[in-house]
Model the fold of this input.
Amino acid sequence: MKKFTSVILLILSLTMIVSAMTVGVGASSAYQTYTYSINGFALYSPDAYAAEQALIYTDMGLPMDLKNPKDMITDKEGNIYIADTDNNQIAILNRYFEFQGYITTFFNGAGNNDKLVAPQGVFVTDDSIWVCDTGNNRLVEFDKKTRDFKQIIDPPESQLLSDNAAYKPVAMAIDPYGRIYVVSSSTNQGIIVMNSEGAFVGFIGAQAVTISAWEILWRSFQTDAQRKASAQKTSVIYNNIAISEEGFIYVTTSGIEEKSVANDITNKVRDGKFMPVKLLNPSGDEIMRRNGFWPPAGEINFKNSGGVSTLVDVATGPEKTWSVVDTKREKIYTYDFNGNLLFAFGDTGTMLGSISNVCAIAYQGTKMLILDSGSKSLIIYNRTEYGDMLIQAIAAENSLDYDYAIQCWEKVLQRNSNFDAAYVGIGNALYRSADYEEALEYYEKAYDTQNWSESYKMVRKEWMSVWLLPIVALIIVLIVLIVKFLGWAAKVNKRVATDGRERKRFWEELIYGFYVIFHPFDGFYDLKHEKRGSVRASLVFIALTILSFFYQGIGQGYVVNPTGATSTLWSQAISILVPLFLFVLANWCLTTLFEGEGSFKDIFIASSYSLLPLILFIAPATLASNWVSLSEVQLVDLLIGIAFVWTIMLLFFGTMITHDYPLFKNLIIILSTVVAMAFIVFLVLLFGMLLSKLISLATNIVTEIQYRA
Done:
């Protein structure tokens, strides 16, 4: 009896240990949920959806295993419809994932026995089940309740359809007005649109095709026969479609050139021309909002992970959210209607929630359903408390309840302080409540310059309404002072030029810089021959240039420098002195060999005086950057651009006058100077490497001698 009791206790102990291990394994997630910052860094977040179970055919009560399933959709009651392609049927489950029946064979309109062949798409309305009968090149409608045959829509007929293009419907959707939208795997003219009777209406959403300048030039030299024989640029083909309650159409494609997609993601292009997911209105216009940190296109950090996402399906979720699936990474990306990435998750593996080969996605209330053709399973994810918080916040925004939206976003931040979109959400709510100054603080936390700029415009408008007259008066005074100063400087320069004094005062040498920048030919000539400038004045101009760029590094406005990056006086000094010294040295070396009349000192003085436009424009442009909005930053860039162009022109003409070169020869010398600067840098680096190796060799010899001694 004791022995039997011991065995029972041992079995119970082992059972408890195994159970504990199972719980421990189940507690760990098969994937990491994350979002992206405005700088493209992945930010981990709590799971918005947690895997509940993965059902194979026996779990769902299906008579046979799924075979290459392609599509899935749910209806308002939560029933699930799966396109079981290679089994030539549509599998129907109830909301509890229990098998209800198949649609496979039927009696058609002629009373003949008919059947589905390789159906790849399925769509459900309130009254009907629509099937993309791909193998038979047609659409078939069945009654939703009885599953009886209703009608067949054969391939559309129109002169707009290409003669050599086969009709292969793989996905479809129907809007609230009965219009039918069909994705054909062999049609590159866009989405096929038919009316409720199946009559062809037209195409919408054809993908733009780009031809390079080289291709245009090359084709201009080709004969008609060569043009026909050459590869033609054709629009890409869509692979899936979904429709929102409002009748807007989401479409995905994996056929756009990866280089074009990558370029638009990297440059944050908002027009969607080369995006793999688009939102179309019934007229075919692209209307997707891409107001997030990055345009919706799946993976952002794609350079080190196999390239851009391969999107194969899209589904609409609660509160105008929507999700796309990436079959390259087996991930799901979910966005709000404004294009903000709410969360991304998914990975391969063997744990619960892992995906082998995602092929379809659908929502069922608070659940997200993933159809995995690799494991032939239906993976069910439940929305977590964190996911509920996100939906509540978005719902509050959609219902214009901004106070409640702020509360919801604050709860989200308590769970996930890395979620920058929550700061933006609070900022938006404050902005719509006319609390513009506080909205600025939240936009700044997310580095959202676009919304920050809109809020700042309102703050500036309120401020200008109070201080407009003093500001206008100040601007007028500044203009008058500048005009007076330039007039006084002109008189001083004219007087100094005629007074016959050989030794100029220091302040007169500084004032002469204003004559040089407005009269470069006479100015640089007198700078050399009449000794109107000096090394001491040149050093002042260089010092002021360094200070101007240092101020730019620490004083730029938020809209220009949202991250608050700063620079040091030392780094700015190096960035000015090294290029200037290299230019003077390289130019002196070359002009000594090519009959240049200027000395090293002359080149140095002329180059230093050429920096004056940078001094005059950089500081005011930096000050102005604190007052402009994002749409006005171009004005700041214009000021800086004028300063650099002016300086480069002064360097060019200063070199020409100093060395008495003709225009073309001076151009050659300037270009050669740039090459010589690069060569000097190369020599310095080479010498540094050799010196480093010599020091290392000497150190090793000394160490060896000490060791042997």
Q: What stands out?
A: DSSP finds 18 helices and 27 strands in the chain. The chain has two domains: 51-383, 501-690. The longest helix spans residues 449-498.
